[in-house]
């Protein structure tokens, strides 16, 4: 999508210009103080975040469409999809909104972008929410056994799909498998693998920018030691949210992430997966809203 095409598509949608001239869009919904929301994927249309289970009843959610997704234009330079380069897009959004400081939420791979923004602009972040976070930015590793343990939840083990999906996860945990194997473990990203979860999973294929996803975490994107050092000095409140059954960000990984900060709270949703607002919206809204207040 060119900048001109993006302009026509979002005639009534808030837009702003990134430092390199790329036209970016964001979506504002709800009422209350703003909460900047960075989507995962990586490089996935922010539409999948929705209203985060009703959090917009308490906060004005500002969902950023990353470049090349949703209503934002495709950049002329594909290397600008790299996560560290997207930090300046977030800073441009802050400037556009006229905020001295911001409350920032990053989901999954979007937590890597939130982490890099916080490390580069710590004085601009008032509160940080890391929602089932990806950990590449801070260099935390998750063992195969930790992923398998997260998958082995009592409510799953009697499901007809469990044996095949668990075997596929075992292959990936052992360093084997293919793209088809990865698709087979999709149930372990969701608290409940029902028809709604299947539809949401299928939608990710349409919503994700494949080219951008391939660049997002490419060489040079992350400097884990520097980011961890910045977090050790970050004194603002941090909330790390995990799902009990999330094989992508198991509870031990989320716990280790929270321990990188001087002041962090870990909240774990029993029976939850990688998208906790779909598993227990009331719990997520109460947890995040209470933290932000």
TrEMBL record:
<feature type="domain" description="AB hydrolase-1">
    <location>
        <begin position="34"/>
        <end position="278"/>
    </location>
</feature>
<dbReference type="Pfam" id="PF00561">
    <property type="entry name" value="Abhydrolase_1"/>
</dbReference>
<protein>
    <submittedName>
        <fullName>Hydrolase</fullName>
    </submittedName>
</protein>
<dbReference type="InterPro" id="IPR029058">
    <property type="entry name" value="AB_hydrolase_fold"/>
</dbReference>
<keyword id="KW-0378">Hydrolase</keyword>
<dbReference type="InterPro" id="IPR050266">
    <property type="entry name" value="AB_hydrolase_sf"/>
</dbReference>
<dbReference type="GO" id="GO:0016787">
    <property type="term" value="F:hydrolase activity"/>
</dbReference>
<dbReference type="InterPro" id="IPR000073">
    <property type="entry name" value="AB_hydrolase_1"/>
</dbReference>
């Amino acid at each position: 999508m060119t900048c001109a095409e993006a302009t026509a598509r979002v005639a009534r949608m808030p837009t702003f210009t990134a430092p390199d001239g790329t036209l970016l869009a964001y979506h504002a919904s709800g009422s209350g103080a703003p909460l900047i929301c960075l989507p995962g994927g990586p490089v996935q249309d922010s539409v999948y975040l929705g209203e985060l289970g009703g959090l917009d009843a308490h906060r004005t959610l500002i969902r950023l469409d990353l470049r090349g997704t949703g209503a934002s234009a495709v950049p002329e330079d594909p290397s600008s999809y790299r996560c560290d380069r997207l930090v300046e897009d977030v800073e441009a959004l802050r400037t556009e909104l006229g905020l001295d400081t911001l409350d920032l939420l990053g989901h999954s791979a979007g937590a890597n972008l939130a982490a890099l923004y916080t490390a580069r602009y710590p004085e601009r972040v008032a509160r940080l929410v890391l929602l089932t976070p990806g950990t590449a930015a801070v260099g935390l590793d998750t063992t195969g056994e930790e992923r398998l343990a997260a998958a082995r939840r009592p409510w799953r083990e009697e499901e007809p799909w469990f044996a095949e999906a668990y075997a596929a996860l075992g292959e990936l945990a052992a360093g084997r498998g293919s793209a088809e194997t990865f698709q087979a473990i999709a149930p372990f990203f969701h608290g409940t693998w029902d028809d709604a979860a299947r539809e949401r999973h299928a939608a990710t294929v349409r919503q994700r920018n494949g080219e951008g996803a391939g660049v997002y975490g490419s060489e040079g994107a992350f400097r884990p030691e520097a980011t961890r050092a910045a977090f050790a000095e970050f004194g603002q409140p941090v909330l790390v949210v995990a799902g009990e059954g999330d094989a992508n960000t198991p509870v031990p990984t989320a716990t280790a992430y929270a321990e990188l900060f001087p002041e962090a709270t870990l909240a774990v949703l029993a029976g939850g997966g990688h998208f906790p607002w779909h598993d227990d919206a009331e719990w997520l809204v109460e947890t995040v809203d209470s933290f932000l207040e």
